[in-house]
Amino acid sequence: MKPYVICHMVCSVDGRIHGSRQRPKANVVPDLFERLHDKLGGGSWLCGRVTAQEFARGKGEVYPPTDQVLPRENWYAQRAPQAWGIFLDAHGKAVWHRSDIGGDAILVILTEAVPDSHLVGLRGEGISYIFAGKTEIDLAAALETLNRELGIERLMLEGGGGANGALLRAGLIDELSLVINPTIDGSSATPVVFNSGDRDLGPAPIETMTLTGHEVLDGGAVWLRYKLTSAAA
User: Fold this and answer.
1) Overall number of domains in the chain
2) Final residue of a domain: which of 96, 125, 151?
């Protein structure tokens, strides 16, 4: 089994997700994303590699070389934190210099292609990791591991657009929580709610999107919630 996955995002009316670029600034409500995250029930959350490197403190660093050879087996620094902050990092790009984010323990989803030095570095910083694939992450297998080994039954998918798009196309998103701010970004270069990176992966395999809730928030933002069913599920 996999966790129930809720993709929770806040964007401008043109679908862009960098709040710092959105105008008018007066319509960007501080902490709105976090407050609605908590209203949805909070818990463990998942982001992609780009977001991982934004949270990581070792900018431009790699973990030092090692002579150790470690098995490609899941490793947990702990088993029952208040919540997990989970990151897709297929090739081990993020050097953390931290073991939690706001009290949520970091867990990294890797492939077997990561160097031993990266695994030693993660262990030294008390960061848990699991493997899901040899060179590319098998998203379905990763979610099943999170459910089976850590008991995660519900997971908040919180971007960026590459991670969201990958799970969408794999048919792994059960619900969409989308807040549309009354703002505009206007750039074609900034991230969107869902994307496919540099590859055209064809249309998303969505069979139905059913509106289950809508609410106008203070300041004119609109909160939409949809139940998704996927042909790929």
Assistant:
1) 2
2) 151
> Residue 171's domain spans which residues?
1-44+152-233
Model pLDDT for residues 141-161, shown as the tens digit of each residue:
999 999 999 999 999 999 899
Name which of 216, 136, 146 is nearest 181 in CA terms: 216
The DSSP bridge partners found for residue 131 are 110
Q: Closest by alpha carbon to 61, among 130, 127, 118?
A: 118
Residues 225 and 103: their CA atoms lie apart, in Å, by 27
CATH number of the CATH domain containing 125: 3.40.50
Residue 157, H or E segment: strand 154-157
Q: How confident is the model at residue 218 (pLDDT cuts 50, 70, 90)?
A: confident
Q: How far apart are CA 156 and CA 173, in angstroms?
A: 10
195 vs 9, 64, 166, 182, 222, CA distance in Å?
13, 34, 8, 22, 22
Q: Are residues 57 and 93 in the same domain?
A: yes
Examine the domain organization and report whether 111 and 170 are in the same domain.
no
Question: 126 and 72, same structural domain?
Answer: yes
The per-residue pLDDT for range 76-127, each reduced to its tens digit, is 999 999 999 999 999 999 999 999 999 999 999 999 999 999 999 999 999 9
Amino acid at 122: L
